[in-house]
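Re: your question about Polysaccharide biosynthesis protein

S., sorry for the slow reply, the queue was backed up all week. Below is exactly what I fed in.
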Amino acid sequence: MQAGVLTARLRTLAAGNGVMARLMRGIIGSGGVWVLRLAMTLGMSFLLGHLLGPTEYGRYAYLVASVTLFAPLCSLGYDMLAAREYAAARAGDDQAGEAALARTLPAAVWKNAALVMLVFIPATAAYNAWRGQPWGTIVLLEALGIVLTAQLRLAQGSLRGLGRVSQGQLYQLILPPLLNLVLFVAGLIVLRPSADLAIITFVAGLALACPLALRAVTRAASRLDVTPSAEARKVWARSAMVLGVTQIMFVANEQVPVVVTGLLSSSTEVGLLDMARRFALFASIALNVIALPLGPILAEMYRKGDMEAFRRVSLQTTYAGVGISVTITLAYLVCGRWALHLIDPQFGAAYWAMLVMCLGYVINTMTGPVPLALTMTGFERDAVKGIVGGIVINIAACALLVPLIGHMGAAIGSVLGQFVWNSILAVLVRRRLGMALDILALFERRGKVAA
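Result:
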């Protein structure tokens, strides 16, 4: 009975073409996709951790983190640019010039990827050879994974700006891990479980999903018939550079702990850290689910000058995110160790690192959608300032602590980085937009009412 009432209430909220209805439809669609994606990636980690143990699982986790970390160097912010500019076209901005984005941006990403690979492949091969690790086929697979992930990021951003949030998530977040899981299980029929098999099926999943995603963007954008001017192209290039730095820093804040642990410690420590991170990601589910449909809506509100609605919608997402992330963290406090032991008793050592990383995601949700607010209103340069500060702290803390306390040091470094950059961005949002989007706004508002 209660489930039926809740379903009816959600359908009522999602009806119509208003801001909240659009946001609710995006949340319902993207929420299911995000939960499914987390379930699949955690399921894959569970399977690999159980079959391979922390050490071999750590080899696989390190490559996946490396691919995720370097992919934004190839996409170079064009995914965020596409989301913003397509949203502007849908709002009726004649200067956006979005139709050609679907034709020009994939080529731009391929060019960036070629330049990045000219440096990445020989540098990675030389480093692996110096450490006595495989440096041939494994490096080429890693490079291919980076390029394919960059194109999938572009496709997801484009579809997001075109109002097809769930479709964008399908191609970037659902299809690759699903294909990876299916191919890996199929491979077990004829091969023994190994990190190498998992790496091959991971890249194969990306290779199968990429052309489908780019084709979906071309079809969706063909309805927009706007030709960009030369000046518009220059503006795109400048914005893409700044957005690219922002995106790289975002991803680096997540992946640097794993990569630094792999560089300074053992594969076992990488495996423990990544498993802790996979579980802790559920604490960030609310803000991540809301952010995908929220970005284009905030961009549209800002261009229309409706800042009160901008503030109200942003604060509502902050309150929802805090409540959900705190609840999940408390659940892990009670039963997290038991869940890790189900995979393999050795993964029980990741319990405290998991709780520490959950704390970082709670801090992230408490500051609200401040990075999104800055990038979707044209203040991406300010967003870079806070993120750079956070990533510097993250790298420094990981480099200092990982040799001393292993994966726990990387978890602590991650939290310190998130605290610094979210605090800086919250202050910058107050200065640039004249509003507070963090949890402190609730207490400030109550204080004014009481006064």
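The mean pLDDT is 79. The radius of gyration is 21 Å.

Happy to talk it through on Thursday.
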